[in-house]
Amino acid sequence: MTQTITVIRGDGIGPEIMDATLHVLDSMNLGLQYEFADAGLVALEKQGELLPAATMDSIRKNRIALKSPLTTPVGEGFSSINVELRKRFDLYANVRPAKSFPNTKSRFPSGVDLITVRENTEGAYIGEGQTLSADGEVATLTQKITRRGSERIVRYAFELARRTGRKKVTIVHKANILKSTSGLFLKTARAVATEYPDIECNEMIVDNTCMQLVMRPEQFDIIVTTNLFGDIISDLCAGLVGGLGLAPGANIGTDAAIFEAVHGTAPDIAGQGKANPCALLLAAAQMLDHLAMPEKATRLREAIIATLEAKDSLTPDLGGSGNTMSFAKAIATRI
Ligand code: ATP
Hints:
Elements: E1 3-8, H1 14-26, E2 32-36, H2 41-47, H3 53-62, E3 64-67, H4 81-88, E4 93-99, E5 113-119, E6 131-132, E7 139-140, H5 147-164, E8 168-173, H6 181-193, E9 200-205, H7 206-215, E10 222-225, H8 227-240, E11 248-252, E12 257-261, H9 278-290, H10 294-310, H11 324-334
Parallel strand pairs: 1-2, 1-3, 3-12, 5-10, 8-9, 8-10
Antiparallel strand pairs: 4-5, 4-11, 6-7, 11-12
The structure holds adenosine-5'-triphosphate.
Residues 13, 69, 71, 244-245, 263-269, 275-276, 279, 317 line the site of adenosine-5'-triphosphate (ATP).
């Protein structure tokens, strides 16, 4: 069966890492067809809009998008196109794996293999009700947490654990202080957890979680938390395993899912063939899992690991003298 996916090549290093990623996917005979669509600066330049209707229609129709980083110019309507996409498609689950890979600048060369599941649509992060008093002395923000939003993200985390054979879910909160919002999240999460007696569940306050992650990351398997805590924790976890060059992310909703590299457009190295394509490749592996092709996803991950192990054609950020496409070709050869 042929599956069409929307492909957004993006800005900065986006086109280079996307070409490299598609080269690898093409070598796998996946039956994927690509529908190219623009967003970000390139769309603004070509079509006069950051997020053209045709791009939205393409994602809506195909339900799956693979997306490179985008530039959101200041003063162009959105604070972030990524946040706008999450909002418009109700992509409520932000899924960020962090895994130790060989020959990377990891703090923990082995032993980190965890996934942060971050609620993506509510809480302080979305910036609702922001005000600044006329004299500039007082600022406010509304933080809204709902039972529905909490329930669906925690359920997603437990279902992910079951699907992937993971054993434990840690509910991360600050209910001791934020009794209403974090309190509702925790109470809802506890209730959902009772439906999954086969999965171990524990609770941890967010500040302690940060310390534990840095000291003993191997104790974590899946972390589920609210939007702002998840934003911070998932980058902390990327740091544990060698930085953003290896950090993929999925934004998943009921009607659509967008897979992306977590890093930005890296304008300092754009167009030079220096960009590491691993984060987008690992996002593509998440996409294959989502498309019910877990064996293909595993093959892709194993080929990335084998290429890192062999130090074959690695990009300069990994200490190699290869380039974006030669790295991708080395991975494709191993597949
Ligand atoms: P943006 O404004 O889009 O967020 P940025 O440069 O501020 O871009 P990042 O793109 O995340 O933020 O880059 C931070 C640093 O990491 C830069 O020095 C960049 O060159 C480097 N970097 C980011 N992604 C990669 C990559 N895939 N390969 C190699 N280096 C990268």
